[in-house]
Amino acid sequence: MEAKAVARYVRISPSKVRQVVDLIRGKDCDEALAILRFVPKAGAEPVEKVLRSAMANAENNHGMDPGSLYVAKVTVDDGPTLKRIIPRMRGMANRIRKRSSHITVVVKEKEE
To answer: CA-CA distances (angstroms) from residue 20 to 41, 64, 85, 100, 107?
Structure first.
């Protein structure tokens, strides 16, 4: 049995979030939360929020034991990009890309 949580349109670049997600993939949920709490990266906060949501879904919707959960699968996909411009010299303009992410966390119960 597995439980899933998804955060869509998170306003942070997917490459920044992937650095954080790689640290917790395959770990116990309690250990993953401890890692996320002390990682000095901006992507740690939304990933922690989604992980807590997946754990709550597992406990409330599927009746799983929260102590025996582990992070089975974590993916970060590209969301839509907001395109903006910044003025440059001689009437030119450069493009600014404000990227967003879709974060998916799947937790499973350990089989003993």
So the answer is: 7, 26, 29, 15, 17
Write the single-letter amino acid at 43: G
The 10s digit of each residue's pLDDT in 14-25 is 999 999 999 999
- Identify whether the C-beta of residue 29 lies closer than 8 Å to the C-beta of residue 5: no
Residue 111 has a pLDDT of 81
Three-state SS at 82:
strand
Domain range spanning residue 30? Answer: 2-109
CATH number, residue 30: 3.90.470.10
Q: What is the pTM of this model?
A: 0.90
